[in-house]
Amino acid sequence: MSDFKDHENWISIMTPDETHEIIDIIETWRRHPCPVADINLATVISPHLAMRFDAIKEEIEGGRGFYLLRGLPIEKFSAQEAQVLAWILSHYLGEPQSQDKLGSLIHSVTNTGLKVAENSDVRSYQTDDELTFHNDGGDAFMLLLKFNTCCSVFRPKFNKNS
């Protein structure tokens, strides 16, 4: 990461039109809620935004291998709406992979008060345990962060060899 410390060419900011489109997508879902797996991905995003996400995918897969996109209006959304947005983005940027033995494709990292040591069915993302570096089966991962709620304690760690 030190190679990128003094450069910002790997950071992109959503345009106001792109931000409004994301808000419109979520507002449409609010009026007609459905399970994320039932969202018609072919009609949700405009050709312009699809091209933007295709460029991001190219950078992730064939460029530097990561991308920071700022300006997603995540603070305007509930946890469920943020999950809808993550689901849509995940399909434009890759292919969701099973996250657990139950086949779940998406999780919210939330401290539920459970403890891994007390129950083998509890996953670390459900606790306040530190998540140590690990590499799941996928080639990439995505985080949507609400800075007003998470980042006083969230400190991402990247392993340059991953």
Structure explained in plain terms:
- There is one protein chain.
- This protein is mainly alpha-helical and 162 residues long.
- Helices cover 34% and strands 4% of the residues.
- A two-stranded parallel ribbon has the order 1-2.
- It is globular.
- The two termini are 12 Å apart.
Biggest sheet record: 2 strands, parallel
* Poorly predicted tracts of residues: 149-162
Strand arrangement across the biggest beta sheet:
1-2
Number of helices: 5
Order of helices and strands: EHHHEHH
- Rg, rounded, reads 17 Å
The helix fraction, in percent, is 25-40%
Number of strands: 2
Apparent shape: globular
Describe the protein's topology.
Elements: E1 11-13, H1 16-31, H2 41-44, H3 47-62, E2 68-70, H4 79-93, H5 147-150
Parallel strand pairs: 1-2
Question: Notable features of this structure?
Answer:
162 residues, mainly alpha, 34% helix, disordered C terminus
